[in-house]
Amino acid sequence: MLNKILFKIFGLFDLIKDFFVHWGIRILVVLFVCIITHNVLKMGEISSRYQGQYKKLVPVYEEEDKFMNVYQVGEGDKTIVILAGFGSQSPVIQYKTLIDGLKDSYKVVVVEYFGYGYSMSMRKHPRTNENIAHEIKTTLEVAEIPGPYVLMPHSLSNVYAMKFQQNYPELVQAIVSLDGKYPQELNEDYYQTQIKEWISNINITSIFELTGYERVLSYVSPEVFYINTMKSMTDVYGEEEIKVYRNRIGSQYLSRTMIREINKVEDNLNEMKEYVYPDYLPVLQILSQDTVNTYNSVKESGEVTVNLTDLAEKLITNPVIQKVEVLQGDHMIHLTNAEAINNSIKNFLYSL
Question: N or C terminus of the chain with fewer C-beta within 10 Å?
Fold first, then answer.
């Protein structure tokens, strides 16, 4: 009996060994080829000579030859500056629903942070609130786009907009935040844990970026990057836009600069925990219904004492000119409910 058991055990070991000998090497070869191919393509994409309408590099740290991309369209007496949410591979494309919806009435500008879109990478200057706010200001100055500005941050950029307003109050006419991230979340143990897990997951996922899996994903599961949604908006997105977007997914998906940024998130949130909007500043905080529902569920479970609406309202010091509005859609609300969000923004700005 013992001999039979040992025979089966060693037989199983032989089977596992044969699998790794025959298939393990093949898998490693495939991964190696994927890594080489992806990074060769990536080098070409990063140094792309694309000179279309979406690319205009301006020197931010001129002595270091470090440039950021800025896109500008439209005319009007107000200048809207769109600040992309964390990880946006191509802000000029992802936020085109807002750009096209607002450009007939306003000057609309998209600033692509270092490591985003066509902007260069950044290692020397840490991804702190201070540096990012300074880089936004410098980009706008070098591009000769005068203030004051209506800042329109999405997601994590909500924190950078707060810092920009704090440092340069004379340059901010109003703030329209889109499903923003709130520093006060750190007051709750549950959200602290969620943020730590978010950071950890992004760091782990960035390792797999070496294989270029995101390229394949953009074709086999385009909904992950909202490409299907974009393609359905034929009046906004054409072949060029989809091509540019996929190109940037290949070269700027969880770039090293983005990883440096996410690893500063806790410090950046902590720095702005005491921030509230000045009572003279017009503010519209647009929240997506899906995100609101998620936060409501956590509050109802008793794990936290505040939901997303509570966090937004805690920043308000003057309810007459500072509003919170909930619209249908998910976190990428500018893609999932473009018409409603543009109408809301226009109504708010018209009242200024």
Answer: N
Sign of the dihedral defined by the CA atoms of residues 5, 11, 12, 13, in that order? positive
Residues 6+ positions from 173 with CB-CB distance below 8 Å:
78, 147, 148, 149, 150, 282, 352
Nearest residue to 142 via CA among 48, 76, 78, 69: 69
DSSP single-letter state for residue 303:
S
Collapsing DSSP to helix, strand or coil, 65 comes out as coil
Output DSSP code: residue 166.
Answer: H
Integer Cα distance of 68 and 139 in angstroms: 7
Instruction: Write phi, then psi, for 150 (nearest 5 degrees).
Output: -95, 105
Q: 107: closest CA among 65, 139, 150, 67? A: 150
Residue 170, amino acid: E
Nearest to 344 by CA among 288, 294, 293: 288
CA distances from 138 to 61, 106, 134, 156 (A): 9, 21, 6, 20
Which of 108, 100, 97 lies closest to 335 in space, CA to CA?
Answer: 97
Nearest to 282 by CA among 146, 195, 175: 175
Is 36 a residue whose pLDDT tops 60? no
- CA 41-46-50 angle, 5° bins: 100
- Residue 227 CA to residue 245 CA, distance in Å, equals 9
Residue range 14-27, pLDDT digits in tens:
555 555 555 555 55
